[in-house]
Design goal:
By secondary structure, the chain is of the alpha+beta class. Helix content is 39%, strand content 17%. The strands form two sheets. The protein has a two-stranded antiparallel ribbon.
Length: 130
């Protein structure tokens, strides 16, 4: 069994949004974009950086007037701030673990994400290119 953690960070403020889903597809990506849109302050616009994953291929932002997508070139994870988050989660929370099933995966990913976001300064530091 597996689960997919969809995550977004604002490198300027350290705010985050995430969902955990049983599948990686455009339906769950749309749900994630909905969360990002709702969390974006009124009058502000969010830039969502995406790699070339299959569920990132559709233009899902047409339903959101406060989101734009920046698609990265192939094989360029170093340009995506969220990659530092995935690395931190693997190194500090989720590596070398056995899970009893889907519910345990979701619970442990939730705990790991919440530990990561507990320190907004860490989010800013990891995700900012200064």
């Amino acid at each position: 069994e597996s689960a997919y953690l969809y995550g977004a960070v604002c490198p300027a403020t350290g705010t985050t949004e995430a969902i955990i889903a049983p599948h990686a597809n455009s339906e769950y990506m749309w749900e994630h974009l909905t969360l990002i849109s709702e969390a974006t302050e009124s009058g502000r616009h969010a830039l969502v950086i995406m790699d070339g994953a299959g569920w990132h291929q559709q233009d899902l932002t047409e339903d959101f007037d406060n989101l734009s997508i920046l698609k990265l070139p192939p094989y360029s994870p170093e340009l995506n701030p969220i990659e530092q988050v995935w690395q931190w989660l693997r190194q500090n929370e989720l590596a070398n673990r056995c899970f009893s099933g889907y519910d345990d995966i979701v619970e442990q990913c939730s705990i790991a994400w919440n530990r990561f976001i507990a320190e907004p300064e860490r989010v800013i530091q990891l995700c900012s290119r200064r």
